[in-house]
Amino acid sequence: MEKRLQWSDLQFFLAVCEKGSVGAAAKTLGVNHSTVLRRLGSLERSLAVRLFDRLPSGYALTSHGQALAADVAPLAEQVDAAERRITGANLALSGTLRLTAPDALLQSLMLAPLADFRRQHPQLGLELVISNSFLSLTKREADVAVRGSNRPPEHLVGRRVGVVQTALYASRDYLASLGPGADERDYQWVGHVDALAQLDSAKWIRRHVPAERVGLRVDTMVSLADAVAAGAGVGWVLCPLASQRAGLVQLREPLAAFDTQVWVLTHPDLKRVARVKALTDALFDALSSDPRLGHRAKP
């Protein structure tokens, strides 16, 4: 009797396609290496074809594997979409929500609203994923995202809550150490590593500050604020972070060119899920009324 394809075998196949190795697929699926190999073998025996070439550098799809992946990947997305819609039918404010946000926004603006939300909905658990990248809300790596972006992804839905502004700051102690009569030509700067090179403030420093005057470079905006507050030099600090650090002096008004819009986002299939809607509404209400966020649109 001919063996029928098992959907679970196809899920293992797609995981190896996406991750590029058996080990990475096993980690994603929460199983061991041998389980993935066994399920791939079962699928190849069912189809009587080889789906992968086993190479020293990893697993490469054969022509049969490429054809199967092209046919099955859309089905997987349809199954995921159906799961999201069915999940949305559950109106109970219970369970767990996964929220992703960058450390700068979480630390400066979000912890108090999240604490209030938990007090109002004690049956709801929150998982916070601190990340500056867009996790896949399609694949349920997160349910809600708060992001600073002037171009949020088109496949997500949400509302803009305001604008994070950036201004030039230094600590009072650092300015005092420069002595009377010092000006910007005497400043040492706190700058950015290459991972933050796309920021407008990082581009400004590259254009206007000689490299030898950038004595410290950091990889997060929180670290930059901390370094400036500690007296490491002057730097372009997010205004909400500066407001939390005593002893900082604003040296220039916020530059509109550095403004970054802040969005509360979710996947379209999740926006009517009661617990997701409760969280996105709470974050919108809290952040859109926070005076530490500007509300001008970036030109």
TL;DR of this structure?
GO terms for molecular function: DNA-binding transcription factor activity; sequence-specific DNA binding. By secondary structure, the protein is an alpha/beta fold.
Rg, Å, rounded:
25 Å
Structural class: alpha/beta
What is the CATH topology of the largest domain?
A: D-Maltodextrin-Binding Protein, domain 2
In angstroms, what separates the terminal alpha carbons? 67 Å
Number of domains: 3
* Gross morphology: elongated
Query: What composes the largest sheet?
Result: 5 strands, mixed
Strand segment tally: 12
What is the CATH architecture annotation of the largest domain? 3-Layer(aba) Sandwich
Q: Helix share of residues?
A: 40-55%
Strand content: 15-25%
Q: From N to C, what is the helix and strand string?
A: HHHEEHEHEEEEHEHEHEHEEH
**Strand order in the largest sheet:** 4-3-5-12-6
CATH class of the largest domain: Alpha Beta
* Low-pLDDT residue intervals, each spanning 5 or more residues: none
Q: What is the mean predicted local confidence, pLDDT?
A: 85
Keywords: DNA-binding, Transcription, Transcription regulation
GO biological process, one term: DNA-templated transcription
Domain HTH lysR-type: 5-62
Protein name: HTH lysR-type domain-containing protein
